UniProtKB/TrEMBL annotation:
<dbReference type="GO" id="GO:1902201">
    <property type="term" value="P:negative regulation of bacterial-type flagellum-dependent cell motility"/>
</dbReference>
<dbReference type="GO" id="GO:0000160">
    <property type="term" value="P:phosphorelay signal transduction system"/>
</dbReference>
<dbReference type="InterPro" id="IPR011006">
    <property type="entry name" value="CheY-like_superfamily"/>
</dbReference>
<dbReference type="InterPro" id="IPR000160">
    <property type="entry name" value="GGDEF_dom"/>
</dbReference>
<feature type="region of interest" description="Disordered">
    <location>
        <begin position="444"/>
        <end position="463"/>
    </location>
</feature>
<dbReference type="Pfam" id="PF00072">
    <property type="entry name" value="Response_reg"/>
</dbReference>
<dbReference type="Pfam" id="PF00990">
    <property type="entry name" value="GGDEF"/>
</dbReference>
<feature type="domain" description="Response regulatory">
    <location>
        <begin position="155"/>
        <end position="271"/>
    </location>
</feature>
<keyword id="KW-0597">Phosphoprotein</keyword>
<dbReference type="InterPro" id="IPR043128">
    <property type="entry name" value="Rev_trsase/Diguanyl_cyclase"/>
</dbReference>
<dbReference type="InterPro" id="IPR029787">
    <property type="entry name" value="Nucleotide_cyclase"/>
</dbReference>
<feature type="domain" description="GGDEF">
    <location>
        <begin position="317"/>
        <end position="449"/>
    </location>
</feature>
<dbReference type="GO" id="GO:0005886">
    <property type="term" value="C:plasma membrane"/>
</dbReference>
<dbReference type="InterPro" id="IPR001789">
    <property type="entry name" value="Sig_transdc_resp-reg_receiver"/>
</dbReference>
<protein>
    <recommendedName>
        <fullName>diguanylate cyclase</fullName>
        <ecNumber>2.7.7.65</ecNumber>
    </recommendedName>
</protein>
<dbReference type="GO" id="GO:0052621">
    <property type="term" value="F:diguanylate cyclase activity"/>
</dbReference>
<feature type="domain" description="Response regulatory">
    <location>
        <begin position="4"/>
        <end position="120"/>
    </location>
</feature>
Length: 463
């Protein structure tokens, strides 16, 4: 999992050392020597994570973190404070400034990479929702302003803790209005969490540790709990299972003896991040459902998907367009009627949607054409997705009244090159689709370099 990391430290030797460690793990790295430089770099470079030293002149790391988290353009970037300060009060101060994690020097390779991977997983989800929100904003659908964080009524679930620890943690969180449920076994916990209503899970790493880790893994394997914040409670000598827990999807941890202020700060940060993600999702659901939805298939419409591709390309991320056309669709309309044709389009839309990842966007492009936008330019991944779409349509007949008919699709794939405009990408996919039709249909064709020279007129629909 690669990413952009901004290293902030006023000591050049420290920056170079950390950069070398990160580049050895194939991260992109940039440096900043002060708080002011860090803020400027965060705006100009859009890092995925900021590693921030505390002891810097003029503006220390705490103040820099506060300013980053107060800015709507940078508040979503995870900030990890890396410092020689080990006092609990300093950790709490960093967390209250908005830091997503606090690492004490010297930081082991395993600890650093485990924390980075955990934060990157969360940021990928947030970025996907932010990108869609930006697309909605460009369409004139404004999001509601964020509400202040209110913890009253928040519910958390505690697992595998003894009665004394449950009483301690429950008392600490009650001061913020958070109710803590304890005492259920893991099977009951899965049922409770699947039903919703919980904002956080606290998981004690009491022996046997493997059982706790297995439960953590099961949370991330379920769609109902995949994004639910998970905080581990462990002992200082449990670094190995804690790191394993991060690799399995844990978001944060707290060590025994538990400091009340640190626990509250870490829980507040997790709840704040969850509420932010929920607000992005709710805004998208509220504002886009009618404005950018194709009324027949329930997919996004042409305008939205094109804008989404525009946003990906402007952000400099990898992007691919798949233009999909239903083979011999006119025969379906002529032979069975337009209502049956509509039914086929609806069913195809459902089948293809089921084959895509959460970060992919599919829309009805017009008539019997669909446009799929992927946030990747990896050849193998793109072709695997295109193959799944083909099989999802072709492998199961469509029921029309008392008859079953086979339907296939043809797909043109265009992987975007750096600096390419969305019109050119879609045109290249259109040319590849035309070639797929000419080659016999029910196939995937990839755009060649000559297909990316500029817009062409599509003749694919005529086949």
């Amino acid at each position: 999992m690669t990413a952009r990391i901004l290293v902030v430290d006023d000591v050049a030797a420290n920056r170079r050392l950390l950069e070398a460690r990160l580049r050895a793990e194939f991260f992109e790295v940039s440096q900043a020597g002060s708080g002011a430089e860090a803020i400027a770099a965060a705006h100009a470079w859009s890092p995925d994570i900021i590693l921030l030293d505390v002891m810097m002149p003029v503006m220390d790391g705490f103040e820099c973190c506060r300013l980053l988290k107060a800015d709507a353009e940078t508040q979503h970037i995870p900030v990890v404070i890396v410092t020689a300060l080990v006092d609990t009060d300093e950790r709490v101060r960093g967390l209250e400034a908005g830091a997503d994690d606090f690492l004490s020097k010297p930081v082991s390779e395993a600890t650093l990479l485990s924390r980075l991977r955990a934060l990157l997983r969360v940021k990928q989800v947030t970025d996907a929702w932010r990108l869609r929100q930006n697309t909605a904003r460009e369409l004139g659908l404004e999001a509601r302003p964020p509400l202040p964080l209110a913890l009253e009524g928040t519910r958390a679930l505690l697992l595998r803790a003894d009665a004394a620890e449950a009483a301690l943690l429950g008392g600490i969180l009650a001061a913020d209005g958070i109710s803590l449920l304890n005492g259920c076994d893991e099977a009951e916990a899965r049922l409770l969490l699947a039903g919703g209503g919980f904002d956080l899970v606290l998981l004690s790493l009491r022996a046997p540790e493997v059982e706790a880790l297995r439960f953590a893994s099961s949370l991330r394997a379920s769609a109902a709990t995949r994004d639910l914040p998970l905080l581990l409670v462990g002992d200082p000598d449990q670094q190995a299972p804690i790191l394993r827990g991060f690799d399995l999807g844990a978001n944060d941890h707290v060590l025994r003896p538990v400091d009340p202020n640190e626990l509250r700060a870490r829980v507040r940060n997790q709840i704040r991040r969850r509420r932010f993600q929920e607000s992005l999702q709710n805004d998208l659901d509220r504002s886009l459902e009618m404005a950018v939805t194709d009324p027949l298939t329930g997919l996004r419409n042409r305008r939205y998907v094109r804008r989404h591709l525009d946003a990906l390309l402007r952000g400099g991320k990898g992007a691919t367009a798949l233009l999909v056309d239903v083979d011999h669709f006119k025969r379906i309309n002529d032979g069975f009627g337009h209502a049956s044709g509509d039914h086929v389009l609806q069913e195809i839309a459902l089948r293809m949607q089921d084959q895509l990842r959460a970060s992919d966007v599919i829309g009805r492009y017009g008539g019997e054409e669909f446009l799929v936008v992927l946030d990747t330019d990896a050849d193998e991944e793109v072709m695997a997705i295109a193959g799944r779409l083909q099989r999802a349509v072709a492998d199961m007949p469509f029921r029309l009244g008392d008859q079953r008919i086979s339907v296939t699709i043809s797909t043109g794939v265009a992987i975007a090159l750096p600096g390419m405009a969305s019109d050119v990408v879609i045109s290249a996919a259109d040319t590849a689709l035309y070639r797929a039709k000419r080659a016999g249909r029910d196939r995937v064709e990839v755009a060649q370099d000559t297909d990316r020279m500029g817009p062409t007129s599509s003749a694919a629909a005529a086949f």
